Every structure is written in structure tokens, then in C-alpha cells.
Amino acid sequence: MTVQRILIVSGTHGNEINPIWAVKQFNREANTLNYGIEYEYIIGNPVAYEKGCRYIDDDLNRSFKEIKSHNQQKNSVYEINRANFLVNQFGINGSNPCQIAIDLHTTTANMGTSIVIYGRRFKDFCLAALLQNKFGLPIYLHEKDKAQTGFLVEAWPCGLVIEIGAVAQNFYDPKIIDRFLIIISSLREEIDKLKNNLIELPKELVVHVHQGSIDYPRDEKGDIDGLIHPERMNQDWKIIKKGDPLFFDSQGIIHRYDRDQLIWPVFIGEVAYKEKKIAMSYTKKEVICSEKQWVQEFESL
């Protein structure tokens, strides 16, 4: 296995500060070469972090669509320039190449500790399976959404997001920091076990596959005219069936789920998604059988 360096990104969104604290603490306590794999640490969006906001011009985690080389003209959008810098510096063909990218995020939604992967890359499946097998974490498989593209980890051969909540923006929570520390400290160990045939992947990988998103009720001016129903609050990953309440509007009318398909909601009430007109996203549960090719492709990194 040729994995030598893993990029740990915190502060991709500047107001998600717990991952930054966790990485600083981990770096102080364990900044040594471990299992032959080195960690590279970077704050994704340092200017937004200094200002305490999510981004400066645009969402950095939607800015990895067209990566340019060092000598090409800079873009007027800060986050696009930052995305180019990160890939040119730490991408697989960069100055300090990393084979894997781990992007650390928090959410205001009650997601617990979870994994987000984008698309069905076998290397990502392998890494996600290692973590799900050890910690039992739910996995959100985000795919087929043309409005949501350009994610950071997609710019690396292998990568995933660790998403933990609920926590308010710009608020430190020691429990959430500890969760990040546990994940970071375990990552290299799990990869090393796989490399030395000390563990096998589980036979199955359970994922929640993105199906779409639901907006808040809105009035004729396009303003939000409804609240998430109390029965739906803090119920991420909990099944929704036909007739279940989703919202109630300013007239007191309850808006109910009216489809026959069972769904599992995620990112319920995420504050940052209001601008994207998302009150919650919804998924279907899928069980994917593990394949030897996952490990083979992971070992080829």
C-alpha cells in the first residue's frame, strides 16, 4: 500500500470552528509519523475563519470544479483561488501530494457523528467501510445532484467528510471536539490494520443515498412562510412515511409528506442551507455488498 500522506482539512467553512481546535490539539499531542503515514494539516478557508463567517465570496466546498495550475490567472472569487491553491499544493500531482483528503465539518443539524461520501468511488467505499465497521457511523452518499457539485474531497483520489452535530456556528463544544479527535487518531491505525491483513472489511456497507431536498414553505414573495414541525426536529436519520408532518406555516396549516416512498431525512434545519433553499435533504437506505476490488483500488493509491 502506497498511502504516505493524508490531508486533514478543517475550517473549510470558517464558522465551523470545532474541527480547527481538534486538529490543533491533535497536532500538539501526536505530531509524529505513525504507521508510516504522515498527516498534513491545513485550514481550508483561513480568511473566513478569521472573520467568523462561512465563506468570503462563495462556498469553498462547492469551488473544486475547475482546478487551474499555478501559472494561470487568478480568479476574482477568493474561494476559487483557495481551491486551486489547495489542489496545487496538496493534490495528487501537487507540490506536497496527499493520497487521501479528510474534510472535517460540523452542522447545526442533529446528525450525530456521520460520514459523507460523494459518488461511488471504490476507494471511498473502502475507507468509509473501515470507519463504519469500527464506529458504526451512518453514511450519507451524496450523488446525482446537479445543483450541489465541486466538493473538496472529490479533487483527491480518495476522500470523505466527517460531519458532526448538532452544534451552533462559532461555538466550541468539547464533546464534539473529542469526537473529531477519536476519528483522527484512529484513521491511520485502521488503514495499517487493513494493509497488514489484520482486519477485513465488513460484508456490507449501509448507506443513505441522496434523493433530493425539500425547501421550506414560502409565500408569494418567496420568503420562508413555515417552520419545521416539532415532530421532525432533531429527527435526522429517522424514517418518514406518507402522512408524517414536515412543516407548519404561518396560518397553522400542517404540511405533510405526501409520497408513498419511505425516506430518511438528513441535515434537518441546517442553518447554512437556508440560502440554498433546503430545509432538509432526504435519502433512501441502501445496502452495498463489499467487493475485493475496493481493497485492491485502495491499495493502489
By secondary-structure content and strand pairing, the structural class works out as alpha/beta
Mean pLDDT: 94
Overall number of structural domains: 1
Order of helices and strands: EHEHHEEHEEHEEEEEEH
Q: In the CATH scheme, what's the topology name?
A: Aminopeptidase
The CATH class assignment is: Alpha Beta
3D architecture notes:
With 301 residues, the protein is an alpha/beta fold. It has a single domain (5-207, 289-299), classed as 3-Layer(aba) Sandwich (Aminopeptidase), CATH 3.40.630. The chain is built from 6 helices and 12 strands. It has helices at 18-30, 46-51, 78-90, 122-135, 174-195, 292-299; strands spanning 5-10, 38-43, 100-106, 112-118, 139-142, 158-165, 204-214, 226-228, 245-249, 254-256, 264-266, 280-289. The strands form 2 sheets. The chain has a 9-stranded mixed β-sheet, with helices on one face. It has a 3-stranded antiparallel β-sheet with strand order 8-9-10, with no helix packed on it. Helix 1 (18-30) links the parallel strand 1 and strand 2. Helix 1 (18-30) crosses helix 5, helix 4 crosses helix 5 (174-195) and helix 4 packs across helix 6 (292-299). It is globular, with a radius of gyration of 20 Å. It starts with a strand and ends with a helix. The relative contact order is 0.16.
